[in-house]
# Entry
Amino acid sequence: MKKDFEIQSNVMEALKWTPLLNANEIGVAVKNGIVTLSGVVDSYPKKIKAERITCNVKGVRGIAEDIAVKLNSNNKKTDTEIAQAALLELEWHSNLDFDKIKVFVEDGNVRLEGNVDWDFQRKSAAKAIWNIKGVSGIVNNITVTSVAPASNLKEKIKSAFERHARLDARKIIVEVDGHKVILSGTVRSWDEKAEAEKAVWSAPGVDSIMNQIEFAEELD
# Structure
């Protein structure tokens, strides 16, 4: 099992090797495998990138993300300009039904409302506006509309786990209650836990997940 100081060192090194980021702007603290990221960056994509890089570091069991976005004068836009740009991005996105999504902007913070048929569409809507100049935060309140669950949903989810190169399907337990999927068992990392949840969201009819997967001790 990785010690906290080893995880901290590895996260800091990973951030340093990421071209988009200035590692000196981001503070890293670790306690019991939980990484707290702090500091100030000048764009929302940098905030997201720091979190994604951290979740891929071995030994990370969770992330408390406290990075603030402070836009410089070159990146600032009015809320109206941001809203117009966001609507245009969503309208041109091939995976989305534009009419089902509404955009609200206040002080550079974007809130998305509406409903979609699939979770990947909900995530795609947020990703579509990450790189818009002037965005300092995103709240994704889009909901997934329930459709009829696929027959043999439990077996299909387990099969998806078995096909996944980064998951040990033998250690993950799947239970299905209507549209809700309950996951338990053990994984080796925070990233693996997130991958299991991502795989479940790909199944038709899933509208909620209770992720109770725990972490097993890692042997170095």
